[in-house]
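Q: Protein A?
A:
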Amino acid sequence: MAQRYRLTGAALQRLDQLTPLLAPVSELVAQDRARKAVVVPTGLLGILPLHAVPCPPSHALLDDAGTVIVAPSAAVLAPSRAKAARTLPELRLVGIADPTIGARTGQQRQVRPSAWC
């Protein structure tokens, strides 16, 4: 357990080292909360939790400063945004219960009607 806390502390210190790199992004989104920033990290930066980097002046997390989108690449971002903008058809939920579970508790009666929506 003590080792886990040491490793967590070390990881947080490493994230602190990224603060100067992401400070301009933090300032940009903090000035106008309606503004969004897209960060496309390169190389090994792509595996880091950039949304968890503390940013000045309050050392709040980058994600708390405003809307920050972290994308793996511009080639992935464009089709993802286009797909998200499309209107989806209305979805229906079908619940399937384990028939052995509700026999004693009445749960079957609760689930069965919702499956016929």
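Q: Protein B?
A:
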Amino acid sequence: MDRRKFVKVSLGSLAAVVAESVAAPLMFRGSEVFAGPGSPPRGRTGIKIDITEVLVEMIDLTQVYMWAFADGKAGPRIPGTYYFVREGDPLDINITNRLDEPHAFAILSRPDGTFVAHTGTIAPRSSSRLQFNAPAAGTYLYLDPLNSPVNRVLGLHGALVVLPAAGNTPYTNPPASVQALFDHLGNSPHFPGSPWDPARTWIWVFNTIDPAFNALAQENQVIDPLDFRARFLPRYFTLSGKSGFFAAHDPQISPHGQVGQPALVRILNAGMATHSSHIHGNHVYLLSENNQVRSNLLWVDTWALPPACRVDWLLPFMRPPDQADGAWPPVQELALVLGDGSRLNPLSYPNHCHTEISQTAAGGNYPSGAIAHFEITGDLNGPFPTAGGSHATARRKEAQRG
């Protein structure tokens, strides 16, 4: 590719590709693209991916050169397009390397370098094809494993979600404790409301960016992975490709819903930092680490996530335990409009990483890093009443008014 002719993308323009056997996830309904049969053998889900280069705008408007996976339908994305398939689905993935250096495509099974599938090295201007059946239900990181971790961190990563063929949990034949937890959702006094809806799934992909190394890649210089590890100094931290306000106010990144509408959060770390995500307002159940479903469920408010690792959380959307009976629901606060026309939002809680530097960008600008929100928009009986309808609706109306 002519290095002067880049595709320019805004940070974190998310997209999902959903196999024909899978319902579209909630956060992408209305904007998703579907993996149709196309040219692959009948019954296979066909996916076409290009390995390409882009200029990506950071939160401070700095443009950074990166590598990207470009889905044939959705275009280049960082992280790459999210793919949703069912366990056992036959997959047909065609990958073309459009860059001037060797690359590869693989689906990571475990952080030790065990792969579900791997193309091997793809020479410049060449293609490779993978045909295999979707692995066990879980959350997978796909990536370029060459020159690890350089190619992955410079943008070549994304998420593959494999759903079980049946059942009311995210897993096939889950441990009894996981099955009991999901059976209780919406069917017990301690978890009133609704059972888990697989459409209520959010994906967080962490990454770290040191523009000095991206500049070397732009100049076609070979990056030594040992030097990369030793001298990497993150200047930007992204969550699903976005930072700061843009991540926190993106409904595809920040979980939202009413009390009794539990959500699954699939978290992947493509970057160099060890993250430790923490949500205010609710604790979460740690369900799985690197697709090893836990039999001993932990109820935690934070959990370490090293590079190339993945965890699944159940966010129960409980009534916040520190809310006193006499003050619930907080209708007075929800109805209060301040002098500048803004409305209070007492049930919008922060999500941030306890690796505190990751909340910053460009040398300490806070909160411009990997942050998000968790918002409770209503009680068991429906959205919170306010002067303008539900709180979420009121916020949308205010945004439309500018």
